[in-house]
Design goal:
The complex is a heterodimer of chains A (522) and B (640). In chain A, helix 2 runs antiparallel to helix 3 (31-55), helix 10 (213-230) packs antiparallel against helix 12 (249-274) and helix 17 runs parallel beside helix 20. Chain A has helices spanning 2-5, 8-24, 31-55, 85-104, 113-132, 136-145, 147-157, 163-196, 203-206, 213-230, 239-246, 249-274, 276-302, 307-326, 331-362, 378-391, 398-413, 415-440, 447-450, 457-475, 478-503, 508-521; strands at 64-72, 77-83. With 522 residues, chain A is mainly alpha-helical. Chain A has a domain at 283-475. Chain A has 22 helices and two strands. Chain A has a two-stranded antiparallel sheet. Chain B is mainly α. Chain B has 27 helices and two strands. In chain B, strands 1-2 form a two-stranded antiparallel ribbon. Classes of the chains: A mainly alpha (522), B mainly alpha (640). At the A-B interface, helix 8, helix 13, helix 15, helix 17 and helix 18 of A face strand 1, helix 5, helix 6 and helix 26 of B.
Amino acid sequence: MESLSFPLLSFLVFLPLVGVLVLLFVDRENEAVQRWTALTVMGFGFVLALFVYGGFDPENVGFQFEEQYAWIPGLGISYHLGVDGISLLLVMLTAFLGPICVLACWTDIRSRLKEFLVCLLLLQTGMLGVFVSLDLVLFYVFWEVMLIPMALLILIWGHPARRVYAAVKFFLYTMAGSVFMLVGILVLYFYQARTTGTLSFDLTNIAEVPLPFSLQLWLFLAFGVAFAIKVPMFPFHTWLPDAHTEAPTVGSVVLAAVLLKMGTYGFLRFNLPLFPEASVFFMPVMIALALVGIIYGAFMCLVQKDLKRLIAFSSVSHLGFVILGIFSFTVQGVQGGVLQMINHGLSTGALFLLVGMLYERRHTRMIADFGGLSTPVPALTTFFMIATLASIGLPGLNGFVGEFLILLGTFHVKPVWAVLGATGVILAAWYMLWMVQRVFYGRVVHEENRGLLDLAPREIGLLVPVVVMMVWIGVAPTTFLEKSEPAVAHTLRRVQESVQTAQGRNAPWAMACAAWDHLTGK
Amino acid sequence: METAWVIPALPFAGFLINGLWGRRLPKKFVGWIACGAMGLAFLAASRLLWILLQETPTGRFWEPVYYTWIRAGDFQVDVSFLIDPLSMVMILVVTGVGFLIHVYSIGYMHEDPGYPRYFAYLNLFASAMLLLVMANNLLVMFVGWEGVGLCSYLLIGFWYEKQSASDAGKKAFIVNRIGDFGFLLGIFLTFWTFGSLNFREIFEAALVRFPTGDAVVVGITLLLFVGAMGKSAQIPLYVWLPDAMEGPTPVSALIHAATMVTAGVYMVARCSVLYALAPFSMGFVAMIGCTTAVFAASIGLVQNDIKRVLAYSTVSQLGYMFLGCGVGAFVAGIFHLMTHAFFKALLFLGAGSVIHALSGEQDIQRMGGLRSKLPVTFATFVMGSLAIAGIFPFAGFFSKDEILFETLMSGHWVLYGLALGGAGLTAFYMFRLVFLTFFGESRMDPHAAHHVHEAPRTMAVPLMILAALSLTGGWVQIPGIEGGRVFGAFLDPVFHEASQLLGHHGGATHPPLWLEGALMGVSVAVALAGIFLAYGWYMKDPQRPVRAAQKFARAYRWLFHKYYVDEFYQATVVNPLKQAAESTHQWVDRRFIDGAVDGTGSAFRSLSAVVRRIQTGLVHHYALSVLAGACVLLLFVLAL
C-alpha cells in the first residue's frame, strides 16, 4: 500500500513550515493573503490528518504510518515517527483546531499579523511533532521548540499589563521541568547502552529494556515533573492562569486545547510503559494530587472575577480527571482519560474562543463588566451555553462520556476516589452556571453592553464544527473509543503484568500499598 | 416495536426546528410544530399501547436495541428501550398531559417575545423525559434524567432578566446535581456488582446472587434513591422545587408537577426488584416519603403565593407516591403518579389561568370573588381540588386511598397515621386556596380587576379535558369489585418478582371488604373535615386565621418562613464553601504556592546579583581566579 511508503506523517508535521516559507514572501501589507495562506495550509493539514485517520487500522496494536531514518547514527539518534490509537486522537484534535485558530484570529490581531501567523504555524509543527515522535531526542526537540512560539505569542500579542511576567513564568517553569526530563532521557540512554551495548534513543528499543525498580522511581520522577508541570497538576499549576489570562485568544485556545495534553500524553506514552512498577508505586500520590487538583481547581473557580482565569482554573480541575483516569490503571479509566483529553480540548477551546469573541467586542474579561448579554447577543449565548454544558458533563455531549468512564474506572479500584472525584462534578455545575448567570442573565446594567453585535457568519462558521464534534462524541463515542482501545489496553498490559509478576496480586492499589510498606517499613 | 424511537424523536425534531429557525418562522407555525410533534407522539404512543395489549400479559416486554453507545473494556451500554406496561403508562402520561399543556401554552405564552425559545425547550423536555422513561438501562435513563434537569433549568430561568428566576434555575440544577451524584455512584456500584446496567440483566442477576437484605443491594438502592430525592424533591433536597415556580406556569404544570418530578418515583418502581431485596431501603423510602408528605403540607398551610401552595402540595404528593413504593405498593405509587399528573396539571393550569386573567398577580390575599368572572377556571379548579383532597369519586380518592390502605396493611401504623393527617392538611390548604381565590369579596387591585377575562379556548379546552380526567382517572382501579383493578392487572407483571419477594398480597388476595370500606370512610371523613375547617376559617369568619396567626405567632412564623431551611443551607453549606474558596485562593494559591514559585525566581535573581560581581571584566582578576582554581585542584589531586 502506498500509504506505507508515502511519508504522510512527515508531510503532516512539516506542512505548516511550508506555510511559514510562503508567508515569508508575502508582502507585509497584504494581510488578506497572509490569512488565506495560513488557513489553506492548516486546512490542508486537517485533510492530511483525515487521511491518517482513515488509514489507521484499529485492530493493529503497534505504531502505524511509521517512518524511520537515521539522523545522527553515531549517537543512535533517529528520525522516527509513528502513531498509535492514543496519539492518533490527539493528532486529529490538533489538526482539527488548526484552521479554527486561524479563523479565530482573522480580525483579532491588529499588529504584526504575519509574525503571529508564523508563530501559529511553527507551534502547529511543534505540537504535531510531539505527538508523533518515537525517538526521545526528536520528541525532546519538538517539546522544546514548541515553547518558543507559544512564549512569543504571549509576550508580543498578549495583554499589555502583565504579558512579560506571564510569558517568562510560562517559559521558565516549563523549561525547568523539561531539564529533569532531559536528564531522565540521558539516563535511560546510557542505561540501555550499558545493558544491551547498542546506542539508541528509539522509544521502541528502550521500552524493551527492563529497568530496576530503584532506577524506575527516579526516572518516573524526572519525567513526571516535566509532565506534571505541563498538565498542570496541583501544585505546579500557577503558571497556567497567568499564561491563559495574558495570552491572546488563539494562544489560550492552543494552550488549553493542545499544549496541556502533552503532559497527560507524556504520562501515558512514557511513564506507564517505561516505568510500570514505579507507576504503580506512585499511583496513590498521583491519584491524591489528581483529586486535590479536581476539587482545588473547582474551588478556585468559585472566586475568580476574570473569565479567562476562571476557565483556566477549570482546566486544572478537568485535567485532574484525566490524571485520575490514567492512574486508575483500568481500561475504562484510561479510555475515559484519553477521551477527556479530546473533550477538554473541544469544550475549553470553545469557551476560550467565545471569551475571545466577547473580549474583541468589549475589551474586558471581567465578569462584573457583563450581565444580561443574552439580550444583545443571543447566538453567542447559545454557543456559550452549549460549551458550558459540555464542560460540566451533560450527558449527550462529549464531557459526560469521558468523566463517566474515568469515574467508573476509578470506582472499581477504590470507590472513595470516585466519590471525591464526583464532587468535582457538582462544583463544576456551580461555578460554571454561576458564571453564565452573571455574564448572560439578568438585565443589561452596563450601557456599553447594550449595542454589542452578535456573532458574525465567520464566527458561527468556526464554532459549528466544534459543537458538531461535541455532539458526535457525546452521542457516538465508540467511533473514537475503538480507535484508542487497543493501544490503551496494550499500555495497561505492561503495568498490570508488572503488578502481577512483582506481587502476584491483581489489585494495583494493594500492590502500591505493599510497595510503600516495603519502603517505609524497612 | 423497532419504531418506538419515533416517540421521543418527534418532540426532538420539534426542538430542532423551533430551536434553529423558530425566530424566523411565523408564530402560529411555531406553536403548530411544537403541539403537532407532541400530538403525533401521543398517537404513536397509543398505537404502541394497542400493540402491547395484543400480547399476553406476561409477554408485554420488548427491548428494541438501536446502537452501542459506549464501549470500553468489558463495559458496554447500548442505546435501547424497554417497552412494558410500566413504561407504557409513563409514555402515555408524558405525551398525553404534555400535549394538553403544549396546547395550553399557545394561549398562555402568546404575548411573550421568547415564544419560539419556549416551545423549543418544552419539546426538548418532552423528548428527554421520554428517553428517561423508555430507557432499558440505568445510563440511558441517566441521560434523560440530566436532560430533563437541563430543560428544567432553562425553563425555570426562562425570564432570565429576572434575578430571582435565574437564581431559581441555577439552584434547581445544582441541588439536582447533588442528587445525581448519588445516582451516578449507584450506577458505578451496580455495574461493578452485576457487570451490566441493563435492568433485566441486573434484576435477574440480583435475584440469583443476593439474599434479601444484602449490604450491596442496600447500598445500590440507597444511592439511587439519593438521585430520586433530588429529582422528586424529597427531604432534604426538596428546596429547589418551590423556587422553580419562577418559571412560566405551564412549565410548572408539565415539569414541576405532572412529569419530571415523578421521575424519582418511576425509577424506584422500575428498580422494584432491587428495593424488594433491600428492606432497609424500602423502610427508608417510606419514611422519607411520609415525612416529606406531612412536612410540605404543613408549609403549604400558610403560603400566600398561589403557585407556591401548589408547589408544596406537589412535594407533599410526591411523598405519598414514595410512601406507596416504600411499603411495597408499587402499583399504588404509580397509580397516584398518574392521577396526580391529571389533577396537579389541572390545578397548575387553572392557577395559570387565574394569573393570566389578573395580569400576573399571584398573591391569593389579593384575589377573591373570581368565581363569577372565571367560571370555567373555577369549575375545573374545584374539580382538581376535590381530586387532590381525595373526595369520592374523584381520581385522587382512589389512588391516595390505595396508598393509605397498603401502608396500613403492611403494618406501618405510625406512617398511616401521619399520612392520614397529611391528607387532612391537604384538603385544608387546597380549599383555603379555593375559598380565598374564588369566593368572598374581591381584594384585587382595581386596575387588575378591570382587565379580568376568562381564558381563551386554547387554554380552556385543556382545562376541561384534564378536569374530566381528574374525575374519571381513578375508575381504572376500583377496589372491592370483581374486574375493577384494570390498572393493577395491567401493571402486575412488572412488579411480579418484587411482590413475590415481599410476600405481598399485591391485590391477588383480598383483605376483608368491610375493612377496606371502613378505611375509605375514614379517609373521606378526614378530607371533609379539612374542607369544612377551611370553610369555617376562610368563608364564615375571615378574621379567624388572622387571630390564629397572632395567637400562635411563633409556629406561624416557622411555617411561613418554611422552617428556615433555605436560610439554614445558606448558612451551613453555601456561605462556608464560598468563604473557604475565598481564603484558599488568597492564602494557599496566591501567597503560598505562587509565592513559592515567584520566590524561587527572585531567589535566583538575588543570587545572580551577588555572583555577577565576580564578573568584573578585568583580565587580571580572571587570571587570579584561574590561578586560585588551579591551586585548589592541585591540592585536591595531591591529597588523594
